[in-house]
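Exercise 7. Given the encoded structure of a 400-residue chain, write a plausible sequence.
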């Protein structure tokens, strides 16, 4: 992997984007139904809000459960085959959603088909994104891990930002079939495109059991999970927070968060290679914590917008910065499993943030979620600081 000849930045980016495009296809498929399916389940199938929310959550849990397997399969079969499996699952999800739209006369059948489609989309998400990331790492070498993970994140959030409004537009024009057919076609197109990309060799060597991989990277995953809570709170509750204060323009806060996230990834991702993942993570956690506290103390919408901007900039580099350190803990032939296990902490954090924040709101009010989230990010900062100090002491003792 590390024998890759020296390449220019443009050449490296082209090689990475040639496979990260599958992450874009995947997350565009994830984003398209998000703003549409709850209304479809509630208004057209006649189920309550709880069921509408559960249909969305099914995908997150399918992603969480399949993350470890996606990494292990990528190590054993090669990332190309795993990406092709992921694209196939996305296509099948689109097909099942089309069938659900045709079965609205029988609501229980339509709901069942929809749930099955969400499961396949969740599996497709974990297989496509993990496989594409490992594929990129194999193509350009492990020294460029931070760059690969950073581009993967840009593709993810750009696709999600495009997907939600596109899904609403297609639903208005054609109903649920509009976005469902597009999801199916993207899955098929991604499968065909991946089949034509050159594969990379499977790294030989002993593959350790998953529990041993998890035991080596869990502390980095815990930091990621704690840092993800700030993002989860903003994504889930910023609209309700604006409404509780009788303010307008919650969408601007979300847009500024996304803009800061993408800009920081594009401009500062090379700082991870230059300074190391742990120092960059510490700075990122501090910035995210400051943003959340600013939102908590804000007395006007523009201060909330500024807090969302800071939070997005802080959260941006956490995944690649800690991810670089996590995959270093295992041998090359186990890096896919490490990446899958590490990513699962993000999925778990996003799945738990909503219910736990709801409990905080019910007991302490809407404003309490911001200092609570900031406290979790502060814990992540202290955890990472401890890791960094331990690493420095170890390096110093070895150099004596």
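Solution.
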């Amino acid at each position: 992997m590390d024998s890759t000849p020296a390449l220019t930045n443009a050449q490296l980016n082209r090689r990475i984007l040639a496979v990260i495009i599958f992450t874009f296809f995947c997350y565009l498929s994830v984003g398209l139904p998000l703003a549409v399916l709850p209304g479809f389940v509630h208004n057209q199938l006649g189920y309550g809000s709880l069921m509408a929310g559960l249909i969305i959550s099914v995908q997150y849990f399918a992603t969480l459960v399949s993350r470890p397997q996606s990494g292990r399969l990528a190590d054993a079969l090669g990332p190309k085959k795993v990406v092709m499996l992921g694209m196939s699952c996305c296509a099948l999800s689109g097909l099942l959603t089309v069938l659900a739209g045709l079965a609205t006369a029988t609501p229980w059948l339509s709901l069942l088909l929809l749930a099955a489609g969400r499961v396949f989309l969740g599996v497709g998400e974990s297989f496509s994104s993990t496989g594409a990331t490992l594929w990129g790492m194999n193509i350009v070498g492990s020294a460029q891990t931070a760059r690969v993970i950073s581009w993967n994140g840009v593709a993810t959030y750009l696709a999600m930002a495009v997907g939600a409004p596109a899904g609403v537009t297609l639903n208005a024009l054609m109903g649920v079939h509009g976005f469902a057919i597009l999801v199916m076609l993207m899955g098929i197109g991604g499968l065909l495109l991946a089949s034509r990309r050159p594969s990379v060799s499977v790294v030989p060597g002993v593959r350790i059991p998953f529990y041993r991989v998890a035991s080596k990277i869990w502390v980095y995953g815990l930091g990621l999970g704690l840092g993800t809570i700030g993002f989860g709170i903003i994504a889930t509750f910023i609209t309700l927070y604006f409404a509780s204060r009788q303010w307008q323009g919650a969408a601007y806060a979300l847009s500024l968060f996304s803009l800061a996230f993408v800009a920081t990834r594009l401009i500062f991702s090379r700082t991870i290679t230059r300074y190391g993942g742990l120092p960059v993570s510490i700075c990122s956690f501090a910035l995210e914590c400051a943003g959340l506290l600013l939102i908590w103390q804000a007395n006007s919408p523009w201060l909330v917008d500024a807090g969302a901007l800071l939070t997005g900039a802080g959260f941006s580099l956490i995944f690649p910065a800690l991810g670089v350190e996590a995959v270093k803990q295992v041998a090359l032939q186990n890096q896919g499993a490490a990446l899958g296990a590490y990513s699962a902490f993000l999925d778990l954090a996003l799945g738990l943030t909503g219910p736990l924040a709801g409990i905080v709101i019910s007991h302490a009010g809407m404003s309490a979620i911001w200092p609570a989230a900031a406290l979790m990010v502060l814990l992540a900062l202290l955890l990472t600081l401890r890791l960094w100090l331990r690493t420095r002491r170890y390096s110093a003792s070895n150099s004596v």
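Remark. Residues 9-202 form a domain with the Growth Hormone; Chain: A; fold (CATH 1.20.1250.20). Students should compare their own answers with the one above.
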